[in-house]
Amino acid sequence: MGKVELNIGIDPELIEQAGRLGISIAGIDERALRLHLQKVDPAGAEARARRWAEENAEAIRDHNAFVEKHGLLSDHIRPWWL
Fold this sequence. Notes:
Elements: H1 12-20, H2 30-40, H3 42-55, H4 57-70
Helix pairs in contact: 2-3
């Protein structure tokens, strides 16, 4: 059976990082590329995670405040022994 051409979306930052490292991304999806880059360039992955945390810090604070005030949305289905 032959191959079917498929267009997939990959984070441009990952493509740029792979290019800088000389990694061919032919035949790879975003999840696999992300995992591979974490192994070969952990500093780049850490920088991307730090940026994500900074960009989403306000939403994370708001969520944590909501949980502190109201509890988790799943609290009513938790077993009593947890």
